[in-house]
Amino acid sequence: MTTLDVNAGPLKGQMDKLFLKKRLMNFAVPAAIILYLGYVCFAFDVPGLWQRASLDNARTLVSDSYSYKTHVTRDNRSGLVTYAIEGERKGEYPEGMRPAWVSATGDTTVIDLEDGHVVRFGPETIEYDIPGYGLVSATPSRSKGVQAVLPEGDLPEWINLSKNRLAITTDAGRLTVTRNRAEVFRYFMGWELFFFTLDSPYHGMGAGELLSRAVSGEAGAIANDIWTNKMWRHGDVAWAIGETILMAFLGTFGAGLVALPLAFLGTRNFMPVRVVRFAARRVFDFVRGVDSLIWTVVLARAFGPGPLTGALAILITDTGTFGKIFSEALENVDEKQIEGVASTGAKPIQRYRFGVIPQITPVLLSQLLYFLESNTRSATIIGAITGGGIGLLLTQAIITQKDWEEVAYYIVLIVLMVMVMDWFSGWLRKRLIQGDAGGH
């Protein structure tokens, strides 16, 4: 028997064990992932969450993001009827004006919702003629609530009726009647009053007429009406975006200025004292280990709300991150360049300035500009906590649940802002680090 035959048995056994272990791992890892996902599914009550989800509410929110509502409201006590976009006082029609689909004769207001849907505000009774269902009438009374008369049969799901309230929701619009008021609103596509409010002399003008007026000397007045729009607040939104970018800029570059000198304390080749080096690295770990949102909450309690509080939260978190990145870059510098500068008789500070900084500058700029783009997104959320920036406007619009087209508007602006900052930081990185390729 040869030596090869003697060793073949143990070797085969080892190979079989190795293949068995790999096969078990190939099955064990997917099985562990599946078990974990199953645990998460029940721990977070995913089935219950799906059952509680309201697709009707989801459809309403989506439709609200690209459409608006015109409200027709009657005060049941005084009989006064008002018309307003989104039901807001800022979008209220001036006296003597009303939507084209509303007519008034004496004490009766007729609202044509099209396709046969007609609502009438009478002196005492509100009527809604619904095609395919019949006439619904409601008489509000301060002592008896809302007395409604409906066609015979079961109450449809799209009618909500109680002693003090009647609500009818159809594809044509919605009618709500309570003791004190009756209100109809109707959906229309678009973002109404985006440029000019109803009290602006330029409301309803076409692009051609606006251009003609701008050329004839009214460009400033047109721009001012857009900028001071009371419904969409373009001026406030532009200021909020500026605050968000300022928070990201101050936090990012402030962290870079603080982290660079501290990074020298955390490197083996520039700080021989191990205790100092250890302490510097632990400080970096601590400040970057606490998320910027937590720092935001802490600092907001200490210094109060404001954009500078958000910038300081970004600065503290990024100081730890930059300190770690910069110290690693410093440990990889070429000692020969430092020795070359030292051979000219340069002092220690001059060695750092001309022998070290030029080597790590590409890393510094690359990381600073990358984090500037990333922190622009973070500043949006931080601004919602500190009370500044576009994040605050977005949070306010979401909380009120009133104008979801404004929420969509702010989200679009945030996405555009991040895209522009991403493009700008990439362009600046290329110019500063790689140089302008067109100039060679």
Descriptors for this entry?
single chain, 440 residues, MetI-like fold, 6-stranded antiparallel sheet, 12 helices
Kindly identify the CATH topology of the largest domain: MetI-like fold
Number of helices: 12
Distance between the termini: 74 Å
What is the structural class? alpha+beta
Query: Regions with pLDDT < 50 over 5+ consecutive residues?
Result: 436-440
Biggest β-sheet, characterized?
A: 6 strands, antiparallel
What does this structure look like?
- The chain is α+β, with helices and mostly antiparallel strands and 440 residues long.
- It folds into 2 domains: 68-189, no CATH class; 234-439, MetI-like (MetI-like fold), CATH 1.10.3720.
- It has 12 helices and 12 strands.
- Strand 5 (118-121) and strand 6 (126-130) form a beta hairpin.
- Helix 7 (292-303) packs across helix 8 and helix 9 (335-342) packs across helix 10 (348-386).
- The longest helix has 41 residues, at 3-43.
- It is elongated and about 100 Å long.
- The N and C termini lie far apart (74 Å).
What's the arrangement of secondary structure elements?
Layout: H1 3-43, H2 46-52, H3 55-65, E1 67-75, E2 81-85, E3 102-105, E4 108-112, E5 118-121, E6 126-130, E7 134-141, E8 145-149, E9 159-161, E10 165-169, E11 174-178, E12 181-189, H4 207-227, H5 234-265, H6 274-289, H7 292-303, H8 307-331, H9 335-342, H10 348-386, H11 389-400, H12 404-434
Antiparallel strand pairs: 1-2, 1-12, 3-4, 4-5, 5-6, 6-7, 7-8, 9-10, 10-11, 11-12
Helix pairs in contact: 3-12, 5-8, 5-10, 5-11, 6-8, 7-8, 7-10, 8-10, 9-10, 10-11, 10-12, 11-12
